Amino acid sequence: MNPNDPAGGSTFRPDALAPLVDQPVVHSTSSDKIRLSILATALVDALGGPVEFHKRGTFPFTTSFIPNTNFSRYGVLAPGTWTDDSSMALCLARSIARYGFDEGRQLEAYWKWFAEGEMSAIGKCFDIGGTTFTALDLYDQEKGRGQPTPAILQHLRDALSAPRNGGNGSLMRVLPVGLAYWRDVENAKVYAKRSSETTHPAPLPTETCEVWTAIIATIMQNAVVPEGSGEAPTASAQRYSKLDLLDFISKYPYNNEDLHKHLTVPVSAPPPQFIHDADKYTQEVYYWHHHPILRLISKTASQQSNRQKPHYTARQRFAFYSGMEDSE
């Protein structure tokens, strides 16, 4: 099997990507990791916002901030504008920082974002998912009736636990849970599920939030060095790479069949030839051929290699920022 020949169902590592085993975690303090993770969330959200709602492969390869025209009611959003993903993550992060883990406070924060534009990039809510809207509407009604938080949460679970309500609205915001509670992965997973249940109590989003939070906490455990101690990370943490993380994802004990299908090596794949975990490069080749995530990366890279990258002329960018009409 030739890893550079995608024919016949095989896949390959794109030339632009270094081997996963050669991409170790970057060690830093927990405070740096938290700040930079939240910043990175807003950055990639703003990068992907303009192509939201578009099917993969139907838009030019996006490598820089561009205007967002998806929300015509609010006009054209400036390049670099984050969306509801980041707004809700910021709401959750501030709630945890101020009050600890409190579902009532989290719902209050989400409502203020929706109703008053708190944590929005433009001072108002311009995008909200259907399940999130329904949950916040129910929250407002129940709170207006004077219901306590446990009763409100039970009403939300009763109303929104069906699989049809299994959107990604809780997954896109859950990052702060893993960043705050990374020292205990199992405890963090419990909080992740509870966080999801405030708006998305269906089985798929709750488990997905648990998985993503376990991933975040695992990265933090292998990347964080104590504040001001000057201590070096342990030997195992020094070696922790993206390949180790992929192995963690692949071997996670999923309950949901869809998650298992899309995040693990299929049972139809041949057994791996490497004998032990030290044989990292052979392990990576195996994953490039058989793991759904890497196969998708390989396929996408192959499709994009012949696509023209988006191009905005200097005049077009200047026209947007200055409000000029572009006659081109």
Automatic annotation (TrEMBL):
What enzyme category does the UniProt record give? hydrolase
Q: Which Gene3D superfamilies match?
A: ADP-ribosylation/Crystallin J1
Q: What SUPFAM superfamilies is this protein classified in? A: ADP-ribosylglycohydrolase
Q: What is its EC number?
A: 3.2.1.143
Which GO-annotated molecular functions does the record name?
metal ion binding; poly(ADP-ribose) glycohydrolase activity
Alphabetically ordered keywords of this record: Hydrolase, Magnesium, Metal-binding
Q: Which cofactors must be present for this protein to function?
A: Mg(2+)
Cofactor-binding details, from the entry: Binds 2 magnesium ions per subunit.
Reaction it catalyzes = alpha-NAD(+) + H2O = ADP-D-ribose + nicotinamide + H(+)
Highest taxon of the source? Eukaryota
Regarding protein family, the annotation reads: Belongs to the ADP-ribosylglycohydrolase family.
* Name recorded for this polypeptide: ADP-ribosylhydrolase ARH3
